[in-house]
Amino acid sequence: MNLQNESWYQIALWFRQVSVMILKEFPQLVRDRAVFAYILYIFTLDIIIASGATLELKNAKVIINDGDRSHISRELIYRFRAPYFDVVDVDMHPDAALRSLDHGDATLFLDIPANFNETLQRGQEPAVIQMLVDTSIANLGYLAASYGTQISSELGAEWVGQHLSAAGASVGSLPQINNQRRIRFNPDINESWFSSISELLAVITVACIFLPSIAMVREKERGTFEQLMVSPLTPFQIMFSKIVAMMIVMLIGSALSLFVILEFLFDVPLRGSLPLFFALTALYAFATAGLGMLAATFARNSGQLGMLLMLIVFPIIMLSGLWVQPESMPIWLQQIINLTPLRYFIDIAYGILLRGAGIDVLWDSAVKMAGIGVILFTFALWRFQQQFK
Amino acid sequence: MNLQRILVVAQKEAREILRDRIYFALAFLLPVVLMLVFGYGMTQEVQNVPIAIIDHDRSALSRDYAHRFIDSRYFEFKGYVNSVKSAELLLLDGKVRAVIVLPEYFQERLVSGLPVDIQTLLDGTFTFRLRTIDGYIQAINGAANAETQARYLVRRAGLSSSRAQTLLQPLQVQTRYLYNQELREIWSVAPALIMFILTLTSPLLMALSVVREKETGTIYNIYSSTITRGEYLAGKLLPNVVVSFINGMVLILLTVFYFGAPLKGDVVFFLVAMFIYVIWATSLGLLISVIVKTQIAAILITVILAMVLVMQFSGMMIPVSSMSDTNNMIAHSMAPMHFNNIVTQTFLKGGGLISSWRDLVTLIGFMFGFLALGYLLFHKQSKS
């Protein structure tokens, strides 16, 4: 009985110590105006800005030399329109057009020859249009070229439909494979759903790695680390309470952006279970905080820490699959990516928020994420303990 | 201005950079790592897309059609699935990104010249990826259609196959890609990254080196010494500009030799422009260091500023000509856009002084403007 009381006391003491450590972090954080302002910024304005940045072709300037001036050439020009294209000139000499492309004033130049309509009517040989595309921004150049080609082949197909019998091929209908698209989870291809969720996950990652490690290095910088070393707290308690405190901050920030920005501002349908999302986000905080803690054991001051963190955070965010799918990467890089917790958190977060998946589908990702997290955390704790010796 | 004093400060600064080994390593490592990471991370050729197929017809033609996807390097075939229900589960779990459903009578209808509807179920979560995947499917389907129809015309109307082609495609587009003929994404990304990374790291190094003195208190030695603020700032700027310029050269080498992007234009002109840009960026760091008190604040502000300037207003992601009027104006009143113009001109368009002198003059203006601003705002006494 006595023994049991004793162990209860120990446990209560443990929690008391940890909760005191956790609570002290909050006023400290609020008083650090730069870091506090940064947290507010990343969970609000940053996500709004990032979701405005689109990878889609928008408003690309088109210049045209309409040498034909027939109704069919005008019809073709008319189809180059918003939101992808913006025709600024339909009567531009090819030399001037090249200069304009050189200057970056236009993205696409269309050269319609004088006998365009005539060639089309005769039907002996194909009517050819020249299209010059500025591909100095490759992905946008590619999109401009493929949309341009699509526009003209649609026009061509309509022409075929109207003129096939006239051309002497009386076959009635032609075989045709029609592709009926069904887009799941985001049927209107709303880009801001994707970019706001991806940016939120990036921001969560930054917060999970940055906040606890800066809190730790601050203790070193100010010399309060020595106090911690002589306190009755174990290294695990110190690390654990820092991570829990910053995890709470991160969860509040996530809730703010999830409800105010994603749901209210961008109408992202939060389809899955939100308690599950927050629970797994908390798990992710633990899985990934070890990285920051590890960096904190190497850095002596916050300047060094900041640069070390950039070396860690930028690769994780850029390569783990928030913007680019890992399967397109070289195999060696994929294997490294498979070791980052974010790789699995992406599946989890998109699964819950957009696809409405439950734990029955996502458990394997959660297990992998937790496994990697335990390894990182243990390693960081080991490094951390070394400092006490 | 006493040259001797400037050199003393510069020497002290250089020694500080050399002695702090972590800092020294990071000052040169960070740009390289960022270059590699963003170089791989922003070149987004979508490949090996996991795909599943449901074939209700199981005929020769439907198998042929399926193989257009199975054999494509853009897709990675995960297997035939029996029902739409299990296909939907695969999509839900993120195991495949697209499912193609071929209906019954696929072959029968095509052979008798009738249209047939196939279905593609697509995972819409990653919209950019989705558009690309959809584009691949459209292209493969378009090619299949063209072949099927041409064969049909040859068989039914007895036309020659070239005549059938012309009939089916009366309108042809000849596309020429300018400046990046093979559409290599890395060709456009890597040179622009030089601009991006210098915009991030040069101010960072400068801001940190001033704020570190504030934080450790050694700056009070400067406040109380006879050195003038101009001498102190010049001595501070000099080594940081040198470090950033060396970083810039390393980035050029990586761009050309590691990523294989061309440097078509005038190299000397580019180095001059880069030198001016680095001085501008370093004075931006000086301005940041005037505002903030802690190193961490300096880092946070620099990162946010660089990201917004580059991603929104430099023309790296969005062409300046496609921006809204307001953004266009903002972009023009910021130095990164002008340097990005020079980068695109010299690397991809083969330009030099003749094509880019306006941007260079603007950059020089920015450089002097920011140097003057830094000089005016930096005071030799602490405000409290």
Describe this structure in words.
The complex is a heterodimer of chains A (389) and B (384). Chain A is an alpha/beta fold and 389 residues long. In chain A, strand 1 (60-66), helix 4 (71-79) and strand 2 (85-89) form a beta-alpha-beta unit. Chain A is built from 15 helices and 5 strands. The model of chain A has no long low-confidence stretch (mean pLDDT 89). Chain A folds into 2 domains: 12-52 and 188-388, no CATH class; 60-158, abc type-2 transporter like domain (abc type-2 transporter like fold), CATH 3.40.1710. With 384 residues, chain B is α/β, with parallel strands linked by helices. Chain B folds into 2 domains: 3-42 and 184-377, no CATH class; 49-168, abc type-2 transporter like domain (abc type-2 transporter like fold). Helix content of chain B is 68%, strand content 9%. Chain B has 15 helices and 5 strands. Chain B has helices spanning 3-19, 21-41, 60-70, 84-92, 106-111, 127-157, 161-168, 185-216, 219-224, 229-258, 267-291, 295-313, 325-332, 335-347, 353-377; strands at residues 49-55, 75-80, 98-102, 115-123, 171-178. In chain B, helix 2 (21-41) packs across helix 10, helix 8 (185-216) packs parallel to helix 11 (267-291) and helix 11 runs antiparallel to helix 14 (335-347). Chain B starts with a helix and ends in a 7-residue tail after the last helix. The mean pLDDT of chain B is 90. Classes of the chains: A alpha/beta (389), B alpha/beta (384). The interface between A and B is large, with 116 and 123 residues.
